[in-house]
Amino acid sequence: MPHTRPLSDRYGRVATDLRVSLTDRCNLRCSYCMPAEGLDWLPDDSVLTDDEVVRLIRIGVELLGIREVRFTGGEPLVRRGLVDIVRRTHEIDPTVETSLTTNALGLVRVADALAAAGLDRVNVSLDSIRRETFHAITRRDRLQDVLDGLAAARDAGLGPVKVNAVLMRGQNDDQAAELLRWAIAEGYQLRFIEQMPLDAQHVWNREQMVTADEIFERLESEFDLEPAAEPRGSAPAELFRVDGGPATVGVIASVTRPFCGDCDRVRLTADGQVRNCLFAREESDLRTALRAGASDEVIADRWVVAMRGKRAGHGIDDPSFLQPDRPMSAIGG
Ligand code: SF4
After folding, report:
1. Which of 56, 174, 204, 289 is most buried, judged by most C-beta within 10 A?
2. Which pLDDT value is given to residue 327?
3. What's the average model confidence in pLDDT over 31-48?
4. How far is the CA of 330 from the centre of ligand 1 (A)?
């Protein structure tokens, strides 16, 4: 019987939710994430193969107590082997919840295949339902493809379908109520996310960020919000019942209302590095050991050590805060 051990840190938190970035590439150019010309992508030979990704997930599930796996990017739908990786992950342990964070471009083509492969649900990033605003933020005129992808996910049973929206001051922060009205009508769970200092350009500015308080202000001009009954646990989103429910809306206030105390997340980058926090400044390399023929036990031990160094929180409010070198597009949601 393999020797299982928890991914615990010095603060007693245990990571059971694994976020796997399958690529740093993306087919959108969101202004708060990367420059219009894109980035220097990871060298192909540094990116984990499908077999390597599945092996690390298996080690996480079988030896380290991982109970949730979220596939992210960049944009995971651009990864050719995605459906197969999902199927093989599901086969490791069908009781492990699997999900996907995506911009939904092309989801209309693979939603059924992902559901058949065992994917449980999707989170779709969408900041506006206005064509011109979507185009301005993403630098691509692809709103209809996203809406089609969302509908396909709902029809394929990949629910509850969650929509993550970032409000940008002067761009779409006047559209919060409109987005919520639309999400309720479509049956999607909307969550607003405070913009985090993880952009590739390193131009994040706290004054420019739309805070949770401002988000509530904008929503409460039209809706009655009350805290949802269900306990939050380690979930990033604070949930609120809208107009007495059953519809809810979430706010993920990473900057102004951090939730690090209950964090149960650990991340694996597309090039095989463990990040014990979204804002970690150090990473632990598993790829080299993997390719050097290390055993599952050795890799598991290295992963456990990586978690021991996890800091209490992201430290954005500390004067000493330094934005990580690796951008959000190469870490994943
Ligand atoms: S910032 Fe780091 S510690 Fe805090 S919730 Fe996010 S991943 Fe967890």
Report:
1. 56
2. 95
3. 96
4. 16
Please state the pTM of the whole predicted model. 0.96
Residue holding tokens 């409109």?
178
User: Which pLDDT does position 3 carry in this prediction?
Assistant: 67
Quote the CA–CA distance of 67 and 83 in Å, as a whole number: 19
Distance 251 CA to ligand 1 centre (A): 15
Distance, CA 285 to ligand 1 centroid (Å)?
20
Which one-letter amino acid corresponds to residue 233?
G
Ligand 1 pocket, residue 259 CB under 6 Å? yes
Q: How confident is the model at residue 333 (pLDDT cuts 50, 70, 90)?
A: confident
Cβ–ligand 1 contact at 313 (below 6 Å) = yes
**Do residues 69 and 38 lie in contact, with contact meaning Cβ atoms separated by under 8 Å?**
no
Strand runs (DSSP E) across the chain, as ranges? 7-8, 14-15, 17-21, 68-72, 97-102, 121-125, 162-166, 189-193, 225-227, 238-242, 248-252, 265-268, 273-275, 284-285
Beta carbon of 278 within 6 Å of any ligand 1 atom: yes
Residue ranges of alpha helices (H) inside 156-310 are 176-186, 212-220, 287-291, 296-308
Is the per-residue pLDDT at 99 higher than 60?
Answer: yes
Locate tokens 């090039």: which residue?
271
| pLDDT higher than 90, residue 193 | yes
pLDDT at 231: 81
> Which amino acid is located at 187 in the chain?
G
Residue nearest to atom 7 of ligand 1 (CA): 277
Contact 290, 56 (CB under 8 A): yes
* Structural domains for the chain: 7-331 (3.20.20.70)
pLDDT at 229 (0 to 100)? 85
| pLDDT per residue as tens digits for the range 71-97 | 999 999 999 999 999 999 999 999 999
Q: How far is the CA of 259 from the centre of ligand 1 (A)?
A: 7
